[in-house]
User: Fold these one by one.
Assistant:
Number 1:
Amino acid sequence: MTTLQNDLLLRTIKGEQTDRFPVWLMRQAGRILPEYRAVRASLSGFKELVETPELAAEVTIQPVDILGVDAAIIFSDILVIPDAMGLPYQMIKGKGPWFENTIQSKEDVQRVTEKIDVADKLSYVFEAIKITKKELNGRVPLIGFCGAPWTIFCYMTEGEGSKTFSKARRMLYQDPELSHELLHQITEVTIEYLRHQIAAGADLVQVFDSWSGVLGPDQYSEFGMKYVRRICDAINDVPVTVFAKGAYYAREELAGLNCQTIGLDWNMDVAESRKLIGPDKTLQGNLDPCVLYADFKTIEQKTKNMLNSFGNQRHIANLGHGVYPDTDPEKVKCFIETVKEFAKN
Amino acid sequence: MTTLQNDLLLRTIKGEQTDRFPVWLMRQAGRILPEYRAVRASLSGFKELVETPELAAEVTIQPVDILGVDAAIIFSDILVIPDAMGLPYQMIKGKGPWFENTIQSKEDVQRVTEKIDVADKLSYVFEAIKITKKELNGRVPLIGFCGAPWTIFCYMTEGEGSKTFSKARRMLYQDPELSHELLHQITEVTIEYLRHQIAAGADLVQVFDSWSGVLGPDQYSEFGMKYVRRICDAINDVPVTVFAKGAYYAREELAGLNCQTIGLDWNMDVAESRKLIGPDKTLQGNLDPCVLYADFKTIEQKTKNMLNSFGNQRHIANLGHGVYPDTDPEKVKCFIETVKEFAKN
């Protein structure tokens, strides 16, 4: 085991006093960097990059070298899980993910609930983590991740992105039992997936519930939170972060999860969130990613306002959503530098 | 003036005690009805229907005849405003609205801030309202509507639907002054538009802020609420309903608006919303539209739960979002009948 040279993130998660806030960005490994686009241009598509461990490792490390973030997050996609379960996806330019086959019936669910060999099917992710860890050589911690079961369920039933995910939500009302069966199976595969990521070297993991916000409070509790809780209960050897975008109504319930960090989106008022979640979790977020379209002075000011709103409490600086692909890397650096220079009071 | 035979909606808005809750559905005039699809099939497209007053009136009245709702809402689109301001839209099948030209610069804003003749440009809407009023002959009140300035700004700058409206939000950070100039102009045209709708016969009006949820609390207050407030302050002769979808964080501020009714989306907890908004507004909503995909028994049960959650208070039964186009009309009738038969306690 290599000792971490920069363990600011992990110490913040534990609630230790630190001199400054750690900082990283969701989607930091990606289209914002010209160096990423150069790697990507040499390939047939997004999926080839995800499935080629050496290149996935390369783009994972780019933001550490170029932007100076306090953590790397493995370059991958939440949709590798449905893919491994037998529903391959394509990334269509200007449109997003698209699945040729979706889950509509009991037979469809049975087809994807057959036991799969996660170690084999997703070996490219674990290999990418191993290479990344070796090349990072202890500079910063490496974050592994997965989609939350509800979010994966959305794509498996809807087959593509949607503003309302009404087909996915329809299934919850039309066949709650079948929905639970599918969510259960996604959860089992996801837990195994995270365990392999940790075995390969992930220092912490984040669960992305990107579409929690399309469910009302009762349904999120029944079909969303329930399975996030199972994941949190199953992963005990590294810290877990839960980011349930849009689930503002669930903040008190999130506080009860067996996880260390809760992500906030840019709509969530920080003081109110801290009050609802209590003092025992580290909070992560939540600058509006669109702030990075502003001039440098505005970015500095809004970043400082955001840091002040968290006060001297357990906080990982981040955006409240993934960084948008057309953001100028110099603006991203400005955000990172502002966090690094911010004197905790 | 014809006397209204069914004034349940207007009495509920005034806070009078009534025997039952009034009920209507957002998007009730539309694709859910085979009778609508028959009218639509004879035309070149959605826009032709919007712009042909006799047909717009016909599809406006269909849900009153067929579904038995307590109000009609004029068949139109919020995008008639950018269209009148010089940015024509197209409705693209399977995709939604699309604008050939969008607002990106000061010059673009100047082009759309030239004075337009609202009475002439949008005469087709006012004509449709007049015909509808005549044909309704006082059976139920007629609702006029508009998009909130922020939501219209979203389409004018982004040029199409989006999950994040990051281009629209980018402009707020890059040029707040220009953004306010555009929002101001949209607001002026919208107020004139609503006044003409009221003169033509609209008994009340609803402001749809469909994309308030992409803004954080501070930005919504500055760029969203500010202009909704102006509209509310300008319209005094008929009741006004404000539906700010996703703006959960703004409920207390919404309570201060000079309007009578606040719409709730299906994510908003009813008891909490009533507490935040106080007793002086009528609340409208908020059944999850996906409930109408369930079986009849579940629809009845969930509708009753929703009505119970509002208690014996000022409440207009509706969905928490527009009815989804593939909903079975028999399921919609079940929702409506359940509301009508519900004994207020």
Number 2:
Amino acid sequence: MSGRVVVLTGGVGGAKLVLGLQQLLEPANVTAIVNTGDDFTHLGLHVSPDIDTLLYTLSGKSNAAQGWGREGESWNFLDALRSLGGEDWFMLGDGDLALHVLRSMRLARGESLSAITADFARSWGIAIDVLPMSDQLVATHLDTDEGVLPFQRYFVGRRCQPVVRQVMFEGAAQAKPAPGVCEAILADDTTAILIAPSNPYLSVDPIFAVPGIRDALLAARAPVVAVSPIVGGDAVKGPTAKLMRELGSVVTPQAVAAHYGDVLDGMLVDERDARVNLGIASVHVDTLMTSLDDRVRVAQAALALAAGIR
Amino acid sequence: MSGRVVVLTGGVGGAKLVLGLQQLLEPANVTAIVNTGDDFTHLGLHVSPDIDTLLYTLSGKSNAAQGWGREGESWNFLDALRSLGGEDWFMLGDGDLALHVLRSMRLARGESLSAITADFARSWGIAIDVLPMSDQLVATHLDTDEGVLPFQRYFVGRRCQPVVRQVMFEGAAQAKPAPGVCEAILADDTTAILIAPSNPYLSVDPIFAVPGIRDALLAARAPVVAVSPIVGGDAVKGPTAKLMRELGSVVTPQAVAAHYGDVLDGMLVDERDARVNLGIASVHVDTLMTSLDDRVRVAQAALALAAGIR
């Protein structure tokens, strides 16, 4: 496999696929475009959960058992904050704080999120090009039966319990793709564009909501291949299945393919799901990514599907 | 001892005396006016070292062996920050960060340092009235043989090594005493005003530099009694002696008394220092505060001297 591979990704599930790509390919030939719709300001600090999950995963610092955050994390900050009456509903680990404090300081100085993210990746020896979808703020909000909730209030504060009626991306209309995003999608040497098995509504749609990115995907020479986030009629983790039902969708790979629409040229479907005609190229494999070998295997299958389309 | 006791204080040495007062008196009858000239913005966070030292000391959280910071502190934030290329010359512990993050967030919202400090003290069960000298920024700078240095760059970054020619308090002329400061000094029921054995030039002078505080001390009915920071012709710790010499002073209690000038009504002098006429009331005792008993004893001696003057 030569040429560049671009991958659109959200949080934990997406990071697994990107880790597979990092193992499989020359990392410098991979560009990850990361959802920043989950970003929010907490305690005055700019938190970028999906970027951080990817940085932790690719640098070997992620807490695999917990599913988020840093391995060997300590919580003295949060304990002290609690003793001072500070908000403790969002878990900020001691080591994790370094990313938020440094990012916030540099953003306040006028530096861009993409420049800061690139520096962080470089500091941790990550050769993959990690790009936020945009340097402008795009904030995912959910219209629910409890009113409109910012993403983290819904996801962490309310553990995805409210019934969602609509997902909105505040600021998206004014946002621009971060430097390098459309360039990577459209580059002549880009041979595959993957959509990671992240939540289509909460992790991938915010990326599509940034004006220009969807058009770039439609114009790209490279095939766009999604790894289905559905496994045997359910989501592997997180609120994907519940959210799809609440938004009136069935929980099938077809529904995800239909949701992505005309940007999609192919889909890697889990072997547990029905072999129906998606109207695009598709291959059935075991898409569960439990081990590192699984991650490499799924990445390889997605790239093989893209190569077949090309 | 009835009535209110007011104490002007800086960092570690001053906090020892205030702790003695907390043991000796009804804490609600004590007002501590704290130097904020050491405050600075680090990594985008507002750090108030002397306020924090006092809060840690009075709530039993201070690290006695280390002489600063929290007992049982961890350093995962700083390790992670270092791995990202962040500035690590100023030690920010994981638990310690809670004060800085919460304070910074609340200051950014427009709350005052005095209101925030009062909340912190209340959260930690401190009944002493802990007041910053001012809610406005006053920044101690030192004109040295290496140029003008902000306080923490001189104190922590350069470990007090540069030769000091002058001490300056930027912003002091525009600052106002924090709410409660002059009121406590001038209150009818205030029976003693103590100046803790903090660095006269770096911890007490910034308080005097806030317009109105010195005048209030001159107008106060209560006697103003300093605990000499000199013990046997040297300072107990820190750069006091070196700084006094660099500024052309001798290192004696007389020199400190002369430096404070007409605000002073009495001085508690260490028994190791010469019994000379200070021109004000004075008593010689052992002023070293190694144990908690020492702190109580020195506080008691200072109050007795004040009572004798009154």
Number 3:
Amino acid sequence: MQQTNSTQIVSGKDIAQQIKNQVKTDVESITKQLKRKPQVKSFIVGDNKESKLYLKLRNKACFEVGIKAVQHEFSEAVTFRELANEIEKTNSDDQVDGIFVQLPLPKHLDAQKVLSCIHPSKDVEGFTAKNMGRLVNNDPFLVPCTPQAVMHILNHHQIPLKGSHVVIINHSTVVGKPLALLCLHENATVSVAHVFTTNLKAITSQADVLITAAGVPNLITKEMIKKDAVIIDVAIVKTEKGITGDVDFKQVKEKASLITPVPGGVGPVTIASALQNIMKATNASLKVKYINE
Amino acid sequence: MQQTNSTQIVSGKDIAQQIKNQVKTDVESITKQLKRKPQVKSFIVGDNKESKLYLKLRNKACFEVGIKAVQHEFSEAVTFRELANEIEKTNSDDQVDGIFVQLPLPKHLDAQKVLSCIHPSKDVEGFTAKNMGRLVNNDPFLVPCTPQAVMHILNHHQIPLKGSHVVIINHSTVVGKPLALLCLHENATVSVAHVFTTNLKAITSQADVLITAAGVPNLITKEMIKKDAVIIDVAIVKTEKGITGDVDFKQVKEKASLITPVPGGVGPVTIASALQNIMKATNASLKVKYINE
């Protein structure tokens, strides 16, 4: 963690490393019990460069902590049935503990329908109805990785959430909705804004904690935030000048009490959260194994 | 719908009746197809008077539209296993289309654990993880009745939600969280407040639509709302003066554009929504029957 005036700048790398160290210890112990490494299989369709880059980063992270990562690539033209068959085969393969389906999928495939083919016990992104519902019911098992990463950062920096006003800019199923649920479970007051919000500044300026995932560079300027607010920038946007988030980092960091940079903020912690989910799924399958024996 | 000055006062009875009329038509048609009436079974534990009254009202409503309603009563001392066994038997009883477990349950029973015994296809209160998750994923099947009732009232009165600021006072799994999800799916900006919210008035006074379910009589006064706000009062509190909600109805109705009374507002529509859910469950089981034949 670096300091600028009194503003804390989050090191996503450091937080991710702490999580990975813990995961690595867990992997060593479970590898002995299973007599094999935990294994995750990723399904990827088509030739999206960013998807392939992200998959490569995640596989590398798996390798670092001792998780076996394999991938199954499909051509752009794969049918729903073909993809679903392969996922279903993997559901019943007791050598595979977790399944990722890399998004986005080509337009002819309904992502929701594809994801719902994953067995909830192997759903390491937490997108199936069963896992989402367990989150609503405050009985979480596998929680989506990006929202979980935001919570890790807030926890790591001991940001109090109870009674705080958290504003989330994003109402997607992948980020905004699960994040709102996680913050409500911490008894924060939660506002969810998005592209249809009419007066965004009126909402963001109330935030004790502002979490933004709009994908709009420079959306958040210093006029839009409260002094000493906590600013978590989830967006990753490619621009001519390089990777950026939603926040005008240079000016906002002077007013915020804590801020995540992009890159190097939420991103690395998201990958670490994915590793944690793989271990949760592996541990759960190990328990089932014991019960059945 | 009555009028006070220009304030619309919602008639929950009228809206409920419209829904019931539609359900009745559906029941007649499906009774012919099934060659029996749709059937719902309610499980009730102990001697809670309010629970018994509510159950009586719901059973009466079922009877009115032609749904068979039976109940299984248990003593306060019933164990989790005994109750779970009976629920599981009913899950596989193809004469029963829907299951209610009347809340609250005695303290020795974990409500979440009991509810999760209900098969999602018969979960007519929409509390199981599978149904909650389908709601998060904007692929709803059986949605909790009270939030659904609020949406019916807003739809009936053509209240625009897209871009509106909806404030919900309640962050429970039964009301606040599913309601927030439903409003987000309509592209409202949504704020969720509750007992830990530090400056409630600052939040409520922003609401284009205020939905309150705190159970605190006179919590919402005219100073706390914006002129011409829509006020939906979900609370039902027994006081010495009778049943009341959270809203100081007399003064707030002068400032609001639309308001629900208590009693006679959300309550009757909630029961009508339960009937709709029974029909959804029955229709789904009929489809499965056709597939298996």
